[in-house]
């Protein structure tokens, strides 16, 4: 599919400046931060004379003009060097790489839960517009929208972990692991349940609203009337004609929400001690480890951009008209 | 059918206004009823809600939860309104310039908008607050600067629509300057959707502030609902009310602004629910 | 005479609240026979399209109240439930809509949309249905039908899309076709092709056709009988030649007079088009009595009463207190108008 490839390349070219500006933002934040690398090192060692610090600055050439420093920063980034986290005694890139899979898993599961549940509820709501079922679903979605993510998480812990003792409230798996493939999968799913649910809660209500309004819009379009005139069943019309077209804007919404999903996962990971990027970010905030925070910011921005590309690809596959737009 | 709908609309608006009025009263009366610092330790720790003299109980250090809740209402309102105000100002400016002038200006500004919409803005806000040191000002700034894209998209669309209308061309041929046209024609026409969006933005800003405070990035010199939830977390097993009560307050405040926004939307844009 | 294919009596369609209803279609009766084309003519907003949608109960989403009797081959279909009605749509009554650009689902291939329509009424395998779909495309004269089956609607031009829409309507082999302004959205050259195609198909398959249009040129070319609607009511009904030769209702007469005729002789003095003064009344502000009275030069006090439809012969009827008679007809006696 060469047209599709061309389309993806064009999208990639569009995203490149976005990535560059993000790098610039992060560099500016680094400059804005009180103290530099040497201050941090001096702070870590506990005793450093001003002369020694000046010598260190000379040694790392930190007095160079801004553009040289920025160039060096870019060069480091190109080599995947995100700096060193003195608090963790580890390369920032290495620290982040360890944590990315956990966050991605959590986000993916949450999006799937939110999309599946949200689209079905939204479709039902649109189908029974104005009736009590629609009212109930709409009210629930408003509630989901207004509930703080961390609060949902904490309440779920109170109910399911503390009172009912059904599900664990912290971590990713039983410490030491469980033997056997199925038991270990079940174990992970049990640990996944509460964090994924709390993260999906907010997005669930977004999907419900968007599906409902998109479907109502499509229901009013001419080709739905054409489909009715064929004499096919309402279920066929709802699924094949209305939902399929209503899904397209939902795909776009998913792409736009990825950034905020990443933000939500920071909070959720903090609540459930989920060993992902978010939990790492929380620790970095706590230790005021700016290098690490910036690394996480950069890395998650790029992740979001990459995922947006995937979403675009999905969109291009779902919408046959995309070929003429490129 | 229409009667029921208009009653429902009025009910949503009324419900929102009642909730918000209650919160405003709470915020205003905080200093009258509880003039003392809400951080003061006043009683035995871990008193459950309903204890005599402490209707919402005390926290694990023996601070009065009722006093804290009332004082925190002020912070949520200030941050919510402040941040929403900042992002409305930013978003309107960027949107109007982008939609009115079009061309490469529009291209650049839309890229910027896209950037702020795709990047993990909560992380960006965290970074800003960490670097600028947590304070009400820095929190308002961080939330405001990350949440303007919705507004700018909205205003841009309106500006583009109004730009096409004949009275704008007429004004241009009469030699009226761009800023005057923007001020007199474009802005008044895009006001209605912005008012609705601003109400929803306040709700979102309150949520974001709560999340920041929950993560320990609140202004350390004032009490806020988010930081109360964060502090109560450690006592979740024994005293869940410490997280439940302030969390419920956040929920209520957000619901209030959402209902207000929905009500305003029905009032100002009656076209949207015609079908 | 045998039972008409479609026999509609006293059709009434209301919108809005029951206390102050907007009556879009009022006391409308019509008959269509197999192989016959009935044109419904009128200005936009006169209730033509609402009539078409009401016949197959496709007025979805709006809270329309439909009353009256609709008999298809002598059987009452207005009382059928939604499931039974689905068996009628497409299988017995096919519909063609105005705008081919929006009448097709953009994310389904043309073949899939045809197959769906075919399988809705015939228990055919996918392969068989696909073969039928190809035949249908051939039937509506789409070149290289086999290749075009897997194309999506955006790959087709407006005229080609309307052919696909016609193919969709034919998929269930209906005996009655309702075409709602099928050529309005198309270029003039394409309009003629589509009308020709419709006429050929109608003859081939012996279908009854209800053609809804505001274009008297289209009427003259295709219709056997014409029904003129004004503000939701039938004001006149005639065989096509009679209607153009001797319109009875002042409104019909105005419509025909307002129609630009082809100037054969370029040296002839240009005839000024006569327009009908005033506007079509809004549904919410229909006057008592004849809705056309306010615009009618022949109106009198009697017109405050709703005129009954007067049957002039078996095929002609008019609802007017002061219809044009054949003797004093202005179109029949042009010399008198000059004198």
Give the total of beta strands of chain B: 0
Fraction in beta strands of chain B = under 5%
Which chain pair shows the most residues in contact? A-B, 56 and 45 residues
- Which structural class matches the secondary elements of chain C? alpha/beta
Shape designation of chain B:
elongated
Percent helix among the residues of chain C?
25-40%
Number of domains of chain C: 2
Give me the CATH fold name of chain B: MetI-like fold
Order of helices and strands of chain B: HHHHHHHHHH
Give the biggest sheet of chain C.
8 strands, mixed
Average predicted confidence as pLDDT of chain C: 83
Please report the number of helical segments of chain B. Answer: 10
What is the straight-line distance between the termini of chain C? 45 Å
First-residue to last-residue Cα separation of chain B: 13 Å
Tally the helices of chain C. 11
Beta strand count of chain C: 12
State the helical fraction of chain B.
Answer: over 70%
Pfam family, one (chain A): BPD_transp_1
Keywords (chain A): Cell membrane, Membrane, Transmembrane, Transmembrane helix, Transport
Subcellular location (chain A): Cell membrane
InterPro entries (chain A): BPD_transp_1_N, MetI-like, MetI-like_sf
Detailed description of the structure:
Chain A: Residues 100-315 form the ABC transmembrane type-1 domain. Chain A: It is a multi-pass membrane protein. Chain A: It holds the Pfam family BPD_transp_1_N. Chain A: Keywords: Cell membrane, Membrane, Transmembrane, Transmembrane helix, Transport. The complex is a heterotrimer of chains A (326), B (275) and C (339). With 326 residues, chain A is mainly alpha-helical. Chain A has helices at residues 2-32, 37-45, 50-59, 66-78, 92-127, 132-146, 149-163, 181-219, 222-230, 234-272, 277-286, 290-318, 322-325; strands at 84-85, 90-91. In chain A, strands 1-2 form a two-stranded antiparallel sheet. In chain A, helix 5 (92-127) packs antiparallel against helix 6, helix 5 packs across helix 8 and helix 7 (149-163) crosses helix 10. By secondary structure, chain B is mostly helical. The two termini of chain B are 13 Å apart. The model of chain B has no long low-confidence stretch (mean pLDDT 82). Chain C has two domains: 6-223, 3-Layer(aba) Sandwich (Rossmann fold), CATH 3.40.50; 233-260 and 277-332, no CATH class. Chain C is 29% helix and 21% strand. Chain C contains eleven helices and twelve strands. Chain C is globular, with a radius of gyration of 21 Å. The relative contact order of chain C is 0.13. Mean pLDDT of chain C is 83; it is low at 333-339. Chains in contact: A-B, A-C, B-C. At the A-B interface, helix 1, helix 6, helix 7, helix 8 and helix 10 of A face helix 3, helix 4, helix 8, helix 9 and helix 10 of B.
